[in-house]
Amino acid sequence: MERQVIGLLSKLPIDLNKIGKDNIDSEILRAGIIAELDAINLYEQMSEMAVDKHLKDLLLDIAREEKTHVGEFQALLLRVDKEQEKELEKGREEMEEILEK
Fold first, then answer.
1. pTM exceeds 0.85
2. In sequence order, what DSSP letters do the residues of 77-95 get, joined into one string?
3. Within 13 Å of residue 100, how many CA atoms lie on the same side as its CB?
4. Which of 7, 38, 50, 70 could pair with 55 in a Cys bridge, judged by C-beta atoms 3.0 to 4.6 Å apart?
5. Cα–Cα dist 14/74, whole Å
6. Dihedral of the CA atoms 69, 29, 76, 80 (nearest 10)?
7. pLDDT tens-digit map of 23-44
8. H or E element that contains 60
């Protein structure tokens, strides 16, 4: 059975050179979040494939650190993009409504 590791591997989904000065910080933060999420997926997939227990544990530990990085980027994004903060809360409320059904 062939195993495939899926990841962006450092390819930005947007051209930051085309982003206006007013939005550049938000877009950099979003690109950082995407990169960290991609790294989490990569490390977790490789951990599943690894044979050595120490390597598995190391990859999972690194994936957890990347999750912290996502939180750091998101926390700053919510400070610089108030619309993102509002929509995140709206999404949380909508999910609570769904879960209550």
1. no
2. HHHH-HHHHHHHHHHHHHH
3. 6
4. 50
5. 18
6. -170
7. 899 999 999 999 999 999 999 9
8. helix 53-80
**Buried b / exposed e along 46-79 (16+ C-beta atoms within 10 A):** bbeeeeeeeeeeebeebbeebeebbeebbeebee
Instruction: State the Rg of the chain over Cα.
Output: 17
Segment 76-101 shows an average pLDDT of 94
Q: At CB < 8 A and 24+ separation, what contacts does 25-32 make? A: 25/80, 26/77, 26/80, 26/81, 26/84, 29/73, 29/74, 29/76, 29/77, 29/80, 29/81, 30/77, 32/69, 32/73
CA distances from 19 to 16, 23, 26, 29, 31 (A): 5, 7, 10, 13, 12
